[in-house]
Amino acid sequence: MSFRPFVAFPRGVPMIPRPAASEYPPFFATYVDKVPEGDILQQLSNQIEDMRHCFGALTTEQAEYRYAPGKWSLKDILGHLADGERIFAYRALRFARSDRTNLPGFDQDTYVTSGAFQNRSADSLLDEFILQRQANIILFSSMDEDTLARSGMADGKDITVQSILYILVGHIIHHIQVVKERYQESFQFYTSG
Questions:
Q1: Would the CA dihedral through 23, 26, 27, 28 be positive or negative?
Q2: Could you give the angle at which helices 74-96 and 161-182 cross, rounded to 10 degrees?
Q3: Does some domain include residue 139?
Q4: What pTM, to 2 d.p., does this model score?
Q5: Residue 141 CB partners (closer than 8 Å, separation 6+)
Q6: Which end of the chain, N or C, is less packed with Cβ atoms under 10 Å?
Q7: Beta strand 157-160 pairing with 151-154
């Protein structure tokens, strides 16, 4: 499956500032702190190409590689990233629509095991991520400042829509760093950034 270049920012979308630490649970600082200064919507879009560079040319052997027993394969990471896009977008949508229902957390390891990502190609997992990300770009591009400032409860903790946007970007940065640090020594496949 091939995708055309994708940009969905309406003209005049204001810069979205970094959320204050009080706008998200402390656990997520790991992701928010990784996000560089700059246009967060552009970063959300640019990560599509980052993901293509990191995961777009994997052999089957590379995609199924685990750097240690019990650790995720690159296919598992791709599946996890697609799941994360979907889950966090759902949370953002609910909170953006003023729904303050406490949404449940999720166990990422159970999701990866149940996702059976080993039965899919890396290309199909990457395509799924890209489609989710494109939908998320449209979703977040449509939000004004008041909408981004809305919050809701996830796993019993308050979080703003704006924070979710930063978490999505930081989550990808985190996992690409993990891939570069723990998987690249066994084979050369990632050359960007």
A1: positive
A2: 170
A3: yes
A4: 0.89
A5: 8, 9, 10, 13, 41
A6: N
A7: antiparallel
Whole-angstrom distance, CA of residue 53 vs CA of residue 49: 6
The number of distinct structural domains making up the chain is 1
- Token couple for 147: 């909408």
Does residue 179 fall inside a structural domain? Answer: yes
DSSP sequence for 122-152: HHHHHHHHHHHHHHHHHHHHT--HHHHH-EE
Residue 100 lies in a domain: yes
Q: Which residue carries 């829509």 as its tokens?
A: 161
CATH number (domain holding residue 163): 1.20.120.450
pLDDT tens for the 193 residues of the chain, in order = 454 444 555 545 568 999 999 999 999 999 999 999 999 999 999 999 999 999 999 999 999 999 899 999 999 999 999 999 999 999 999 999 999 999 989 999 888 988 999 999 999 999 999 999 999 999 999 999 999 999 999 999 999 999 999 999 999 999 999 999 888 765 555 444 4
What is the rounded distance in angstroms from the CA atom of residue 173 to the CA atom of residue 141?
A: 20
Residue 33 lies in a domain: no
